[in-house]
Amino acid sequence: MSRRTRARTKPPRRRPRWLLGLGAAALLAAAGWWLFVRDGTDGAAAGRDLASYRPPDIHALAVHPADPNVVIFGSHRGLLVSRDGGRSWSPIGPSGDAMGIAMPPGTKRAYAAGHDAFFRSDDGGQTWSSDRPALPGTDVHGFAASAVTPGRFYAFVVGHGLFRSDDGGSTWARSGTAPGSTMSIAVASDRDQDILLASTMEGGQRSRDGGATWERVTELGAAYVGASGSRVYAAAGTRVLVSTDGGMRWEQRAFPNGKAALVAAAITDPETVYVLAEGFGVWRSSDGGRTWQQMS
What we know:
The chain is mainly beta. Helix content is about 10%, strand content about 40%. The protein has three helices and 24 strands. The longest helix is centred in the N-terminal third of the chain and has 23 residues, at about 15-40.
């Protein structure tokens, strides 16, 4: 055999181990980037149950008006979305505090607001971006959409009062007051009139005149309230309170296995209601809170 032939059949030189490590790292980075592009997140936090995500607080819950299987949760870290009825969750939108979420039907405009944070969606909640509303302050403790007037929103700004927009959030005007310790607001309907309900540290409050005056709702205590039309739900620990007349009369329904902390009802079907319990368990009822199924 000639020298040239032996040279061709010489075993290939092994690559250094550090070079192989670099290649593996590059593959991992590429996979992470693909997850980022696909999910809009870093992939590590996507598709987990809410308990494993462990948000630092419990602030807001909303059901998408076009799909009762899509639920959005707000905390100090921003928004999480579930597209499978509360079983798995992924981050969506910018980071920042979200204390109130408003997603009215019949429009693609949606908002989420909180401490020095204001998010806006122009595609029905698919994507979110930071916004700067024409409000007198940035500490928004309550945010909700009208139950009877399209394009109308309510915002409670700490230290400034209650404000209303009738043009989809473009401009705002003072509408009234709200209890100073308001943690959230919900809007129910009574025929063609908005009924505002505020969850406060001192107990539930109700306004029938756009926030000009308020009255105590003794049944609510400090429970978080969610509304869909004239149907109102309140998360009251081991009970869920239900009203079918805009919050005038209430029924008590037992809530299993934990304390109900947040509640939200589907716009398309007020009998479909979600509850987030302390410990971040997600429960769903399809019969107005008479029976419950644990989703995660």
